[in-house]
Write a structure and sequence with these properties.
alpha/beta; about 15% strand; elongated; 2 domains; 9 helices; single chain; Nucleotidyltransferase, domain 5
Length: about 240
């Protein structure tokens, strides 16, 4: 590939249907050299789990002060253009980005290369193919679990693997981008009635939510209402 974008996202958890992106990092690469970078926190509209803050070092106030995905994603898409994506377990990052794009009615169909897949194919003798382990193996400096640093490290890893194995005609095909397949159904925002009912339930039972009611989807609002009703009963006190 003459040009590509190496991307990484940090999230509140591992499930795209329930969790949210909190940071996007990416580098644009041309002829093996970084020619641009993108980094941005994202307000997920909820409290960060303690283990995520411990893992990433990202603080609640940093995401609280950040723009929401509605502002961040269009900026990232403009940065990335239609270029192929490179990532370590790229379908994880792409799945979160694709879900956000679909919910915003934005087109986001891309091809990509997975450095985890390449590592499993060509470095099967290593005890681990985690990004941090591979960076240690190749002496690539990295501040793990931060989006821009992971994106930079993934780019360097891709170039090293390409140098070692990609010049072999029998192996070169593994380094070519393929369509990233991720089926996502659009989630509508919570309705006015759902928000009002949830707000009343929270007030009635004196509950402090760890999420922003105004940023919930229909399904998320429904789940939260059902949880409160199951635990405390209806609006009738």
């Amino acid at each position: 590939m003459k040009e590509y974008v190496s991307v990484d996202v940090e999230t509140t958890g591992l499930a795209p249907k329930q969790d949210k992106i909190i940071e996007i990092g990416a580098v644009r690469v041309r002829d093996g050299q970084i020619v641009g970078s993108f980094t941005c926190f994202v307000n997920p509209g909820r409290i960060l789990p303690a283990h995520i803050t411990e893992l990433t070092g990202i603080l609640q106030e940093q995401v609280d002060e950040a723009e929401t995905m509605e502002s961040v994603l269009p900026a990232f898409l403009e940065f990335a253009g239609d270029l192929p994506l490179v990532g370590h377990r790229i379908l994880f990052d792409y799945g979160f980005l694709k879900r956000a794009a679909v919910n915003m009615r934005l087109d986001f169909e891309r091809s990509g290369v997975d450095t985890l897949k390449l590592s499993r194919q060509f470095l099967s003798e290593l005890p681990s193919r985690r990004l941090s382990a591979l960076c240690e193996h190749f002496e690539i400096p990295i501040q793990a679990h931060r989006a821009l640093e992971d994106a930079r490290a993934t780019h360097i890893l891709y170039e090293k693997l390409l140098e070692l194995y990609g010049t072999d005609p029998d192996r070169a095909k593994a380094f070519e981008p393929v369509p990233l397949i991720c089926k996502v159904k659009r989630e509508s925002p919570a309705t006015k009635a759902q928000k009002e009912r949830l707000t009343k339930l929270l007030a009635l039972h004196q509950l402090t939510p760890d999420y922003d009611v105004s940023m919930l989807t229909k399904n998320e609002a429904s789940r939260q209402i059902d949880r409160i009703l199951a635990a405390y009963g209806s609006l009738q006190k």
